[in-house]
Amino acid sequence: MTNTVRWGVLGAANFALNHMAPAIHAAKGADFAALATSDPAKAEGFKAFQPNLKVHSSYEALLADPDIDAVYIPLPNHLHVDWTIKALEAGKHVLCEKPIAMNAGEFDRLIAARDKAGLLAAEAFMIVHHPQFARARDLVQGGAIGALRHVDATFTYNNAGDVTNIRNRPETGGGGLPDIGVYTFGSTRFVTGQEPVAVPYANITYENGVDTFVQMAADFPAFTYSAVISMRLFNRQSVTFHGDKGVLTLTCPFNAAVHDQAEIRLENADKVVTVERFPGVNHYVHQVQNFCASVRTGAAYPCPLEFSRGTQAMIDMTLAACPPK
Questions:
Q1: Residue of 54, 92, 98, 325 marked catalytic
Q2: Are strands 232-243 and 148-158 parallel, antiparallel or unpaired?
Q3: Cβ within 8 Å of residue 51, ≥6 positions away
Q4: Residue 74: DSSP 8-state
């Protein structure tokens, strides 16, 4: 392999068009080289910023392309496991949209396929590549707020009017927890380095077989946790780490530069408030660059499948605490 990782994208999803394909194109050490879509018209938006793009008419044709080193998979959730494994078996590194699996048990197949292929496969959990989360982890684990006692997280948006959206359809693996619960849960696990031991409470509203509102509580070894996740409320997102000597709040933890500017607010026992801002950081580009660096050098990747498995296990615990009636 050359120093440049040559990428292909499976499917002309809007998220790929608006975020990930441009990030691959912009990332150092990456080349957005190919797209697989059965509709040539859908390729035109991608060609607007990558005129030399090779377009394959099927996913299988792209996976068979010897010029492609890695693939990004933005397909509907229920297709992620199978196409990740197919890509690995075709000799491609894989970055797959979250959730990469629909339950924690499916990670056994993914990890086995990754290890057999000797390639990198990971979930596209972009927030851990943003410097605000590395900074938050250092502050919390470094004692900036004293002993951590409680974490609360919120991520909401409203797509009630978009009934055909894959997030509102059970057959495509929809639901608020698979879509955005990965952020409220995964961010806490990443910053604290701890795993939940129980989910004693969950209040879940289901519509058409998918969760649309979740209010839950969890117990971690050293702190308590609460979260609200919803696809039926006005846009809101935040994560707060509450210690006995301070409070650390991330005001735009998940959609940095879209929902708001990424910002960390630290208040300590002396009532001193420190605000750190991270303007102009594209965590999608950082994600691709970290992925490429791991592919080229074998360096540890910030979000391995084992980490993503832990987040999915917490989602499974929450769903089990309040199943559909």
A1: 98
A2: antiparallel
A3: none
A4: -
Specify the residue for token string 């009017």.
Answer: 161
- Among 151, 154, 124, smallest CA distance to 137 is for 151
List the chain pLDDT tens, one digit each, 325 residues.
Answer: 568 999 999 999 999 999 999 999 999 999 999 999 999 999 999 999 999 999 999 999 999 999 999 999 999 999 999 999 999 999 999 999 999 999 999 999 999 999 999 999 999 999 999 999 999 999 999 999 999 999 999 999 999 999 889 999 999 999 999 999 999 999 999 999 999 999 999 999 999 999 999 999 999 999 999 999 999 999 999 999 999 999 999 999 999 878 778 999 999 988 899 999 999 899 999 999 999 999 999 999 999 999 999 999 999 999 999 998 8
What is residue 281's three-state secondary structure? coil
| Interatomic CA distance for residues 10 and 115, integer angstroms | 22
How many residues would you count in the chain? 325
Query: Residue 98 catalytic?
Result: yes
Q: How far apart are CA 34 and CA 57, in angstroms?
A: 11
Non-local CB neighbours of 190 within 8 Å, separated by 6+ positions: 127, 128, 133, 137, 307
CATH T-level topology, domain 5-125+285-301: Rossmann fold (3.40.50)
Query: Where in the chain are the domains?
Result: 5-125+285-301, 127-280+311-321
Q: Tokens for 42?
A: 């859908």
What CATH code would you report for 127-280+311-321?
Answer: 3.30.360.10
Local structure of residue 256 (DSSP, 8 states):
B
Continuous H helices in 57-194? 59-63, 80-89, 107-117, 131-141, 176, 182-192
